[in-house]
Amino acid sequence: MIAALRYGVRRVFDVAERGLDRLAGPALNPLAQLGALGFFLFWIVAVSGIYLFMLFDTGVENAYASVEWYSTRHAWHAGVMRSFHRYASDMMVVVMALHLLREFSRDRYRGARWFSWLTGVPVIWFLYMSGITGYWLVWDQLAQYVATTSTELLDWLPIFGEPIARNFLAPSSLSNRFFTLLVFLHIAVPLVLLFMLWIHIQRITRPKVNPPRTLAALMMLALFAVSVAKPALSQGPADLARVPSPVGLDWFYLPLYPLADAAPGALWGLLAAATVMLAAMPWLPPLRRMRPATVDLPHCNGCGRCVEDCPYDALQLVPRSDDLPYALEVAVDTDKCVSCGICTGSCPSSTPFRSVGPLVTGIDLPDLTFASQRERVHELAKVSDHKVSDQSPRLLVIGCQHGAAGTRTDDTLSLPCVAMAPPSLIDYALSRGFADGVVVAGCAESACYNRLGVEWMQQRIAGERDPYLRSRVPRERILSVWASPTEGARLDRELAAFKERLATMTESQSPAEAPAIREAAS
Amino acid sequence: MSMPVSVPRLAGLFVVLAAVMAFAAIFSDAPAYRQIPPGTGVIKFSFNHSADRAKECRRRTPEELAKLPPNMRRPVECPRGRRGIVAELTIDEKTVFSGEIPPSGFAKDGPSQIYRRFVVKVGSHTVTARLRDTPRTEGFDHERTEAVTVVPGQSLALDFRPEHGGFVWR
Do residues A96 and A181 both lie within one domain? Predict the structure, then answer.
């Protein structure tokens, strides 16, 4: 059932993401930047909050009066900042919810990824606490409703002495000091939230905490436009002698408050169950994955390329433990390794051209070795030779299991990430005549399952990242297709078109050694 | 890899972002929620009050005092535990709350606390509050009956303040 739900949500995301890819390109796709946008919105909320705090006056009467003063008399700057503060906070909830759903739909929360998921659960709580304490400060009718309902909800738990809700029993029961406490809470809780966000990204390398500048600028512009069109306003002064009803609720932060009115115990039960379920999800059921990467010391010189490329901070350079004349060697943190194989693709030992002895590389996946990759290339070449009697171009598809090529089994070298294949494998397939063209079919550019695999592979092919694809490799015989699982038809079309292009290429452009090596493979 | 994006496409992305932002702005204060139905108000019944001790204080005998360390020889021993408070609230002769409110704290030595909210229709109501905080087993030590007129959306609070003579409207 979870798998079906995951698939359904993924379809929805895929449709939206590919649409945004077409509109603005993968780099500016906001759905591919949800984590970074969350951080960006946090900073908007923090800066606007500091600005508003300078103009805010604590106190039963003063709080509302000061907010009204700057919202009306200084609407052009403080009023806009207030709207920034409110709407960016709301957007944080939206972005957080989308981020959670997206990671769930891509099954990126189980196995070694449990840490990021689990540490995201308190982030939800602290975000809500930050927002809810902020609403109290305005001390308008919404603040009164939030304050009384929140305290009634807290009083349901048998942990407080005097019921906190008694602070809001009547106008005379509220003191100015209460607002001082609220200000402290509204500063302290977001700081804890920031700390939790920092923990949340600890087990990934190169976390995206800043969106591209263009996207950030557009976001600010959109925020400004909405702030001017619909400024955030107060809902009349609080009056504890009256019940604030009706009251305009912020449905992003307060969607469960009506339930708190009716059945606080049920709401606590719901929150506890949801929290436990979310926290337990990485193990429901546990992910079955390949064994983590292993290092073969005789083939590792401690160059550190795999450490540089690992998206999960699972590799470290440590002092050498054998007698080889190198200072360092690579160590794998098996708890963090997701078995993506990107390290194999980045290892300079991963060269299929080696002909002496067994093909062993410096770092490899025991369940999908580099040697087996080369074997698979040979197998596919044989299959192509048998199938193709009309001399139509033969393709080697290096496909990511999580992209559009994930379901292709017959003609594909299927890998957990296309970046597991070193560029030398492309060179090998073309120069030795195992294929007339190589297709690198990875995830959609903005939705790489292993975070950085698409980017690394693009840079390797472009000669911008070590290990480079050698310049002698004819680029016109390489096709990169970045497509999600829902884009199988596009992949098929691009493969067909590529074959046609290959067929029209002159003999001089074809791999020189092809006939000889084709025999070698058979 | 990132490529330059044309202005129309950037404009399109801006429209998408503004639409999402507008969605956030709209639902940040709408639709309105009604906590109580129209034509009603609220009466809150709440107090934070300690009842008498569960056991009476008693004088220690000279023998008992002699057994104690010199610095702890208080002549009167008062067990810290408190009684529960029996309270009752009737609105228009209908009992909306009746029960014993236990003392708070692990040692049962804290005040008894209650906070209840009752939605009532607008108009005149006769409210009677009763409270027993002494060892007596029947009847009440404090009682107040009053006719109150509730206007729409009003919030009335009935508290117990012994220093003000018992039940007070706030």
Answer: yes
